[in-house]
């Protein structure tokens, strides 16, 4: 099953069963060259972070699709200043609680600081909003649940050697080597949202979240470091550009 957030400026969705990644033919968005970001830290779910509060303005349902509108407040005042970082003013990550489906989208923020997200698949979804209002990093989250029962899917066993979109990708810790399927150097790799690659990790159980960027840029390698900030079992989603499109590759990772 898949989720489509229709009102994002850009769209990237992982479709199908565990262990399979697809490039959808979505074009790469414009690239920001602001590479600044703080040290990685795991953020537990919650509607408050760094002095900011996520407010749900309303949820409507039409033909089974749920549309929710949100905004941020700080000290009771609505926030409207959202600088662009890594190619977008707002990054929204949508996952099933069992991590069996994933989307990374970029909703448009209105002049009043509000944004809207539409989910047209039933059941519960966990929404993570990653943004930098007033140049302050903020990660907040909410849940959508229409009380439709959706059977949980167990995480697949770790598989650190996969072939996707004609590329051979090998994970060692949280470093990734990318070659052509025949072992020759990969061609057509491109930045995505101002970075060589991105890695989004969500922990099984509590849905704690972290968004990582490579520590350095090396051709055919995405190096995110040896481990995640805290132990647990994670579903991690490697994202990078390939010939004008975006590729997402999921992995199950166990951090001791």
| SSE-based structural type | mainly beta
The biggest beta sheet reads: 5 strands, antiparallel
Count the E strands: 20
Elements, N to C (H/E): EEEEEEEEEEEEEEEEEEEE
- The name CATH uses for the topology of the largest domain is Immunoglobulin-like
Residue windows where pLDDT falls under 50 for at least 5 positions: 1-26, 29-39
Taken together, the total number of domains comes to 2
What's the overall average pLDDT, rounded? 84
Architecture overview:
The chain is globular. The strands form four sheets. A five-stranded antiparallel sheet has the order 1-7-6-9-10, with no helix packed on it. The protein is built from no helices and 20 strands. The two termini are 31 Å apart. Helices cover 0% and strands 45% of the residues. The chain has two domains: 13-145, Sandwich (Immunoglobulin-like), CATH 2.60.40; 161-255, Immunoglobulin-like.
Would you kindly provide a brief summary of this structure?
The chain is mostly beta strands and about 260 residues long. The chain is about 0% helix and about 45% strand. Strand 17 and strand 18 form a beta hairpin.
Using brief descriptors, characterize the structure shown.
Immunoglobulin-like; globular; 20 strands; 256 residues; mainly beta; 2 domains; disordered N terminus; 45% strand; 5-stranded antiparallel beta sheet
Element layout with pairings:
Blueprint: E1 13-14, E2 48-49, E3 52-62, E4 65-74, E5 77-78, E6 90-95, E7 102-105, E8 115-119, E9 124-131, E10 138-145, E11 161-164, E12 167-172, E13 175-180, E14 189-190, E15 198-203, E16 209-212, E17 216-218, E18 221-223, E19 232-242, E20 245-255
Antiparallel strand pairs: 1-7, 2-3, 3-4, 4-5, 4-8, 6-7, 6-9, 9-10, 11-12, 12-13, 13-18, 14-19, 15-16, 15-19, 17-18, 19-20
């Amino acid at each position: 099953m898949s989720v489509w957030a229709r009102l994002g400026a850009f769209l990237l969705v992982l479709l199908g069963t565990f262990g399979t990644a697809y490039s959808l033919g979505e074009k790469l968005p414009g690239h920001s060259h602001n590479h600044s970001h703080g040290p990685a830290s795991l953020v537990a779910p919650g509607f408050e972070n760094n002095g900011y509060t996520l407010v749900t303005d309303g949820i409507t349902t039409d033909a089974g699709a749920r549309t929710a509108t949100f905004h941020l407040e700080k000290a009771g005042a609505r926030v409207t200043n959202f600088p662009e970082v890594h190619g977008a003013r707002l990054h929204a990550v949508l996952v099933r609680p069992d991590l069996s489906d994933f989307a990374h989208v970029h909703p448009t923020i209105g002049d009043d600081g509000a944004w809207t997200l539409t989910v047209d698949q039933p059941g519960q979804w966990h929404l993570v909003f990653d943004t930098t209002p007033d140049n302050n990093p903020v990660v907040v989250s909410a849940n959508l649940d229409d009380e439709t029962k959706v059977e949980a899917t167990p995480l697949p066993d770790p598989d650190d050697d996969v072939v996707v979109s004609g590329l051979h990708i090998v994970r060692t810790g949280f470093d990734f080597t990318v070659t052509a399927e025949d072992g020759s150097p990969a061609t057509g790799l491109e930045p995505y949202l101002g970075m060589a690659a991105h890695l989004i990790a969500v922990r099984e159980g509590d849905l704690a979240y972290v968004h990582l960027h490579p520590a350095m840029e090396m051709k055919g390698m995405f190096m995110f470091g040896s481990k995640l900030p805290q132990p647990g079992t994670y579903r991690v989603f490697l994202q990078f550009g390939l010939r004008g499109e975006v590729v997402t590759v999921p992995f199950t990772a166990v951090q001791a």
